[in-house]
């Protein structure tokens, strides 16, 4: 396969953007990424988004955004895999370049979640779960994750406060990320006092509803030096699925989609988990962070939360995660999240992560999860 | 680029399938395509669909369908480009194989439109148009196409009945297609008596709301003979965009997306329009058939309808179109349509099109259009 590199990144601050439509949000990120790369033309624009059809009444946003951004005529499609849409769209961009069909492709993840009543957003998000077997029974995404967290706590005898360090790390890192939504630290006391969403999941275990857009410019590696002084190579790109309904898993605490996706990516990259210097994982809920660390090979079963408890997940420690705030504090504009993750890993490898820079970061991993683990897309990046 | 071939096709009859969920519909087509190809394993399953999130409350249907069909673990994403979703998903499959990431990929288009009130379906379909500039002003898709048809009639002095032969050809061909929704011929009188939907568009100018699923198995051409006695080569695959809103076009009767997409595909295939033996075009409305013929190079501007009037579009004539019924009579399950079109062209090139077989068909073209021409995906197939 022809190797692909990232030659430009762009992102718009995650937050509440009542004044911007979905195409305007996308424009902000695309403009910045294209300027960062210094490209004038590209072959395709792939968009990731999950709930625009349901929330803003706009599908067909590939053409919609291509036209608005001044690229009328170009190839442009949407790729969707619930909250893993961003990773899936980047993978589509990688394959399009690897195939030889295009030399340069722009991928933009965009989501607008604030422009409606919260009931409608929660229903839209729940379409990532099994409509017949889960949602029709009343499950929201918080409820589904609460089932997993409760089971985890029962199985491995883990108290609620053991999850606090995940949120504290995320918030502490977000302080230094100008594109993060929640730029304030939280204490353990604040975590413990946070209102319950779906017990045992509290507000501080949960990523927020928000708007955002991020973009990357991808280029065939052999052409990348034409554009960028610091191209970042994509040395692993893999996607895998698991059952969409949590109760259909053989073991609801084993994320097989994560394991498959990560192992495929490790194999392509020729690396092991211990070679990863920075890991942007999918902490939509604290329980997802724990299970991802375990299924990706960073901790034994039932031990993922210990990495956080032992202080190993900070930017200057053994397994830095959520170095720019993660889903919890940077925010989780669902269809855009996977692109933010890749942008953030690229920033780390370029040495542009400021106060939360991981020293001497050479290999980074971004892992984007859809639903409660039904789609998992892993990208491994290298200087 | 590594060449890709079609080694298996499957389709479920288009119609009203109240008894089947979206994953059950998809299963029917995937099972048949996989059996036709004789493959046991494949690398990815790409799904095309447009309105499932809005109509059935199920997004994330890549993983949803992969799991239900017994392929848990495989890579599976959704590709959306409104009514051009099917063509876009096939293009994703082509690129995935051309890249070397996979040798065999299954693409399934599926749509379930009947399971709700018609107002909801019309609103969901309208999300393919510009939500802010068209739909908020009250436009439905029929209304948008009516504007184009009215303008065409004014500009080129064309009466309503000049469009009748498109519908008559489609219905006449559908009689012989067991997977078509409307298997009865219509007379010119019936066309003229049909109720108006949005003048000058009548019921007989319009494709129906319906359920359906179709699938193809794609394979690297160098491996195709391992599986199929009659692999069909994909010698052109191209996608292009135009403005999403009709009024934003420089000329609303010139489908520039169609022209760009077709010309890119002709160039890849090294052919001219006159080399095409069978053309499955996107006759969502009669006016779209006319404009597609013109923009694809089969007729001069303002002359497309004459091909139909002169009887040139029948299976045994110069430019055979809609040989299995087209969108009008086979039906238009929106996100699935582009896959049906490619299945039908493959059947023609295999010589398996029965009563409407185009004699000695060697090159066929399938063209899938999203919105009123904002996304256009063209595939050229060859024996």
Description:
- The structure is a homodimer of 383-residue chains.
- Chain A has 383 residues and is of the alpha/beta class.
- In chain A, helix 1 packs across helix 3 and helix 4 packs across helix 14 (337-350).
- The two termini of chain A are 18 Å apart.
- In chain A, strands 3-2-4-7-1-8-11-10-9 form a 9-stranded mixed β-sheet, with helices on both faces. In chain A, strands 5-6 form a two-stranded antiparallel sheet.
- Chain A contains 14 helices and 11 strands.
- Chain A is globular.
- Chain A has helices at 22-37, 52-55, 61-68, 85-98, 118-126, 141-156, 164-174, 188-193, 221-224, 256-269, 286-295, 304-309, 326-329, 337-350; strands at 4-15, 44-48, 75-80, 104-111, 196-198, 201-202, 211-220, 232-241, 278-280, 363-370, 375-382.
- In chain A, strand 5 (196-198) and strand 6 form a beta hairpin.
- Chain A has 2 domains: 4-117 and 210-231, 3-Layer(aba) Sandwich (Peroxisomal Thiolase, Chain A, domain 1), CATH 3.40.47.10; 141-205 and 233-382, Thiolase/Chalcone synthase (Peroxisomal Thiolase, Chain A, domain 1).
- The longest helix of chain A has 16 residues, at 22-37.
- The first copy, chain A, is 36% helix and 20% strand.
- At the A-B interface, helix 3, strand 3, helix 4, helix 5 and strand 8 of A face helix 3, strand 3, helix 4, helix 5 and strand 8 of B.
């Amino acid at each position: 396969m022809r190797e692909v590199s990232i030659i430009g990144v762009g992102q718009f601050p995650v937050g509440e953007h009542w004044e911007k439509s979905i195409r305007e949000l996308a424009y902000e990120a695309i403009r910045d990424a294209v300027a960062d790369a210094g490209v004038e033309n590209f072959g395709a624009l792939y968009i990731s988004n999950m709930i625009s059809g349901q929330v803003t009444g706009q599908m067909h946003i590939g053409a919609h955004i291509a036209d608005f951004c001044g690229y009328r005529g170009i190839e442009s499609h949407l790729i969707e895999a619930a909250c893993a849409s961003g990773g899936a769209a980047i993978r589509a961009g990688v394959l399009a370049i690897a195939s030889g069909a295009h030399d340069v492709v722009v991928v933009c993840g965009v989501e607008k979640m604030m422009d409606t009543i919260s009931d409608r957003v929660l229903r839209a998000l729940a379409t990532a779960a099994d409509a017949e077997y889960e949602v029709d029974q009343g499950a929201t995404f918080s409820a589904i994750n609460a089932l997993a967290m409760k089971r985890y706590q029962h199985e491995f005898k883990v108290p609620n406060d053991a999850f606090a360090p995940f949120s504290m790390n995320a918030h502490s890192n977000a302080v230094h990320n100008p594109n993060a939504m929640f730029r304030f630290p939280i204490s353990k006391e604040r975590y413990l006092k946070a209102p319950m969403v779906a017990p045992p999941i509290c507000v501080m275990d949960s990523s927020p509803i928000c708007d955002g857009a991020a973009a990357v410019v991808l280029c065939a590696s052999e052409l990348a030096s034409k554009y960028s002084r610091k191209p970042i190579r994509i040395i692993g790109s893999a996607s895998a699925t698991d059952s969409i309904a949590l109760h259909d898993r053989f073991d609801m605490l084993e994320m097989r989609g994560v394991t498959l996706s990560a192992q495929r990516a490790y194999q392509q990259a020729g690396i092991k988990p211990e070679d990863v210097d920075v890991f942007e994982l999918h902490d939509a809920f604290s329980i997802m962070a724990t299970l991802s660390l375990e299924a990706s090979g960073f901790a034994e079963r039932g031990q993922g939360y210990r990495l956080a408890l032992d202080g190993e997940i900070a930017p200057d420690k053994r397994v830095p995660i959520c170095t720019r705030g993660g889903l919890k504090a940077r925010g989780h504009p669902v269809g855009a999240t996977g692109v933010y993750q890749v942008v953030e890993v690229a920033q780390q490898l370029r040495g542009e992560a400021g106060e939360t820079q991981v020293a001497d970061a050479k290999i980074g991993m971004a892992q984007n999860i859809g639903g409660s683990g039904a789609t998992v897309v892993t990208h491994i990046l290298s200087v």
